[in-house]
Amino acid sequence: MLNFSKTQIFGVAAFLAVVFVGVPLFIAATGRSDFYFTLTSVALLAIASAGVWLTFYIGRINIGQGAFALVGAYVSAILVVKAGWSFWISLPAAGLFAALIAVLIGLPILRLRGVYFAMITLVLTQVATLTALALPITNGAKGITNIPLPGAISIFGIPLVPDFSTLENSRMAFYFTATILMVITYAALYRLVNSRLGHLCRSMQQNEELASSIGVNITYIRILIFAISSFFGGLGGAMFGSISQSVYPATFVVKDSVDFMLNCFLGGLGYVFGPMLGTLVLYFGWDLLFEFGKYQMLIYATLLILIIRFLPNGLLSVRFGKGGGK
User: Which tens digits make up the pLDDT trace of 12-22?
Assistant: First the structure.
């Protein structure tokens, strides 16, 4: 059973208040409804980054999350547009399909460690892009467009979720959906890390041979964690395709996979909520640096180097100290 301190409970309550009350009130006051799309994108990228963080947790450097996000986006789009499925059913289906692909890929490559595993995952996104270009069902370079907005959900005639196409501002609906999904993702991630499985993962991160010697089935755990990681990627990709109402082979590219990894480093690999903070800072930080024109990339790279050099445990280490965020 998890025991939460008063500080943790207050922090979570404050976060939920800001996300579900503060942000809508701020947007209503400023009239900047475009912020909904921006913050929705941050939430979805944070979900995918959570999966990358989870593979770090078993000692693997995953630079291929963009591939699973692209797979999830295409699976959801195909099921909705060509098979007539409800988006809400296609959402978990996309995540599960991405997890299945991860199992098939992970069986041979998860035996590798360090740079060897990282380099193989690095090419996965490009492979997914080329596959999307080649397959007839994905419409090649044309992609899949005109994806319908999510429909209504009702149980026994009681409406739970409205039809997004009937709303005056569907961006707000997407924002609440994405943030709820993000909260559930990180709550599940926190629970996993603090469970028996999480403790086994931590032992594998430190020494796989020692963990194996005391009876830990490291092969099974590696595959399971990689599948969960890819499920998060597929989930985020599927949602992103729906809000964009289109998906193309270039929707997620190698740069996105690298950014997912950087989100984890920036927020802090030692903290469950590190990827969430890293995503927020990296997303808005890049936009702010746009004002510097041709020096944008130079300043961006310099800041990342300084953070990694002086804050090796990420931005959250400033507040919590070593290991205090779990």
Answer: 889 999 999 99
**Angstrom distance (rounded) from CA 278 to CA 301:** 15
The distance between the two most distant Cα atoms of the chain, rounded to a whole number of Å, is: 60
Are 101 and 282 in contact by the 8 Å Cβ rule? The answer is no
Distance, in Å, from the CA atom of 29 to the CA atom of 35, rounded to the nearest integer, reads 12
Measured CA to CA in angstroms, residue 119 lies from 114, 125, 262, 270 at distances of: 9, 11, 16, 23
Is residue 49 classed as helix, strand or coil in its secondary structure? Answer: helix
Look at the chain and count its residues: 326
The structure tokens 């090796």 sit at: 312
What is the number of other CB atoms lying within 10 angstroms of the CB of residue 298?
11
Contact 241, 235 (CB under 8 A): no
Residue 311: exposed, middle, or buried by beta-carbon count in 10 A (0-12, 13-18, 19+)?
A: middle
Compute the C-alpha angle 201/65/186, nearest 5°.
55
> CB 193: neighbour CB atoms within 10 A?
18
Cα–Cα dist 114/239, whole Å: 31
Residue 36's contacts (CB-CB under 8 Å, 6 or more residues apart) are 27, 169, 171, 172, 174, 175
Report which secondary-structure segment, H or E, holds 136: none
Distance CA 228, CA 233 (A): 9
Cβ-based neighbour number of residue 236 at 10 Å: 34
CA–CA distances in Å: residue 229 to residues 99, 236, 241: 8, 11, 19
Please state the rounded mean pLDDT for residues 76-90: 96
Tokens of residue 78, six digits = 């195909």
The mean-pLDDT minimum among 143-152, 153-162, 173-182, 194-203 falls in: 153-162
Q: What is the pTM of this model?
A: 0.93
Name the CA dihedral angle for 126, 130, 132, 133, rounded to a multiple of 10 degrees.
140
Question: 206 exposed, middle or buried (CB, 10 Å; 0-12, 13-18, 19+)?
Answer: exposed
